[in-house]
Design brief:
By secondary structure, the protein is of the alpha+beta class. It has 4 helices and 13 strands. Bound molecules: calcium ion (3 copies).
Length: 223
């Protein structure tokens, strides 16, 4: 009962502006790739709920001068690297991912293709992904009869995915009169209700006391 009430209060005071969804579809034949989202979110939100996923990774191969592909290698990559979610405190920038994606497409325990993925919500509130250190190696592929298994070069890597960002504005309980400022008016309201409950009970303890006063002073200024 108590916990559900607490959650209800928290939700009612938390403003969620909505989720912004960005998709990317990039490829590289060894060059660096820099993707930036077409829109931005408020970089100064109190918190950001985020989710990202690389939904598709594929490679082109070259055999006898012909480009063959794209060949889906998504399931050759550790799923833990392809998906992430969480909540981080603002303001931006927030780094979601900074590590190599590696695929062993032919399962011979040698990495055939890799790239470093740096994914972030940048300081201006844009989603950003930088693909660097692209390594395109070779891979054993069954070319069918009569060629059989051949060692072929990887020519290009493809990467599709999305980033979801939800900026969250936390409640400003210290702003008792709700005018967007924590200032002397709020202090006076708390003092006026000293020992009571309700207005000025910033921490929800049931009593307006020195703890609430300190919280108001600690939150001084604009909310
Ligand atoms: Ca391999
Ligand atoms: Ca106020
Ligand atoms: Ca209190």
């Amino acid at each position: 009962m108590y916990i559900s009430t607490l959650i209800a209060i928290t939700l009612s005071h938390t403003q969620i502006a909505g989720t912004t969804h960005w998709e990317f579809s990039e490829n590289s034949n060894g060059n660096d790739v820099h993707w930036v989202s077409p829109t931005s979110v408020d970089a100064n939100a109190d918190q950001f709920e985020y989710q990202f996923e690389i939904t598709y990774v594929a490679v082109d191969i070259i055999f006898l001068g012909q480009i063959i592909g794209p060949n889906d290698v998504t399931d050759q990559i550790d799923p833990a690297l392809l998906f992430g979610f969480g909540v981080e405190n603002g303001p931006a920038p927030l780094v979601f991912m900074d590590e190599p994606l590696e695929a062993d497409a032919d399962g011979d325990a040698e990495i055939d293709v890799s790239a470093n993925i740096f994914m972030q919500l940048n300081a201006k509130g844009f989603g950003q992904m930088d693909i660097t250190e692209v390594f395109l190696g070779d891979v054993m592929v069954d070319m069918g009869w009569p060629l059989g298994w051949q060692n072929v070069d990887i020519d290009r890597i493809y990467m599709d995915g999305y980033m979801d960002i939800t900026p969250i504005t936390l409640p400003c309980n210290e702003d008792i009169n709700g005018d967007g400022q924590v200032n002397v008016t709020d202090i006076l309201t708390a003092i006026g209700n000293w020992g009571g409950s309700g207005d000025g009970d910033v921490d929800g303890s049931g009593t307006v006391d020195v703890t609430d006063l300190l919280a108001i002073v600690g939150a001084w200024g604009p909310c």
